[in-house]
Design brief:
Elements lengths: L33 H18 L3 H19 L8 H4 L4 H8 L11 H16 L10 E2 L2 E2 L9 H16 L5
Antiparallel strand pairs: 1-2
Length: 170
């Protein structure tokens, strides 16, 4: 028989020291590079989900990684642009980078892979809701793709993360 649980707030005040043993830091105020740290967390979570056969969680985290990665390439000023800040359309974000941006110049094999990967994710999930919910438009989410090759998914996710992590300075 389990003892009766009593709710205690698990979330700490941002002004408190991290006094609890092994705190899980949530607030981006505690990170030198909040965007880079957030991108890293989505990358690590995506890889863990892939490794543990958690398909929908893997896709969700990969898509979030792709969206935040594109936004990170605009730099912190993207937050001042309401259209970009609230945009979830990966194709639109790629187009907004412009033809002169390093990512879309198509001069590098990794960049070709990254752009192809992001475009495929956009095709599968144009609105950003396929991995977020169990049903999309009344149909089971991600039903149009069925499965993913884990090795390729890991590789492409890693190439995307490496590319962006070298360029994010905020």
């Amino acid at each position: 028989m389990r003892t009766k649980l009593i709710f205690e707030n698990p979330f700490g005040d941002p002004n408190d020291d991290h006094e609890t043993p092994d705190p899980l830091c949530l607030a981006r105020v505690n990170f030198d590079l909040p965007m880079a740290s957030t991108i890293e967390e989505f990358y690590v979570t995506a890889m863990l989900a892939i490794d543990n056969n958690l398909g929908q969680a893997a896709f969700f985290n990969i898509r979030q990684l792709a969206e935040l990665s594109l936004k990170a390439l605009f730099g912190p000023t993207y937050q001042d642009d309401r259209k970009l800040r609230f945009c979830h359309d990966l194709d639109e974000l790629l187009a907004a980078l412009g033809p002169g941006h390093d990512l879309v110049t198509q001069d590098d094999e990794d960049q070709d892979v990254i752009v192809g990967f992001i475009r495929k994710i956009a095709e599968i999930d144009p609105k950003g809701d396929e991995g977020r919910y169990p049903l999309t438009g009344g149909q089971p989410s991600l039903s149009r793709v069925c499965h993913a090759e884990k090795d390729k998914l890991r590789l492409y996710t890693g190439v995307l993360y490496e590319y962006v992590s070298k360029r994010v300075t905020w």
